[in-house]
Write a structure and sequence with these properties.
Blueprint (H helix, E strand, L loop, with lengths): L5 E6 L15 H14 L8 E6 L10 E5 L3 E4 L3 H13 L10
Parallel strand pairs: 1-2
Antiparallel strand pairs: 1-3, 3-4
Length: 102
């Protein structure tokens, strides 16, 4: 059994000015929001869900990006509603949100 049911990594890499990167598209704010929502829903902790930030996940042109393990599902997102949908559908109900996958 995995230590976490789901381990979520948000790319929060910041590249030099002018270079495309996830953090230029608000990934740090979305990671903070996701972490807060998971805590509010009492879904955080061992055996549950862990939200982390990552350095470059090497998909800069598709960003912002996040990846959910153990499934290895890659998502992109634009607004908080996208994060809410990923939390509700994938992390809680186990259903991949196809419209946001990469």
């Amino acid at each position: 059994m995995n230590f976490y049911q789901h381990h979520v990594f948000f790319c929060c890499n910041q590249r030099a000015e002018g270079q495309n990167c996830c953090n230029n598209h608000g990934s740090q704010d979305m990671r903070d929001y996701a972490k807060s929502r998971i805590s509010e829903l009492k879904l955080a902790g061992p055996g549950k869900i862990r939200i982390n930030q990552a350095g470059c996940l090497d998909r800069c042109d598709e960003g912002p990006v996040m990846v959910v393990y153990p499934e290895g599902v890659w998502y992109t997102f634009v607004e908080r509603e996208d994060i809410d949908e990923i939390i509700d559908e994938h992390l809680v109900k186990g259903r991949v949100v196809s419209r946001l996958t990469l």
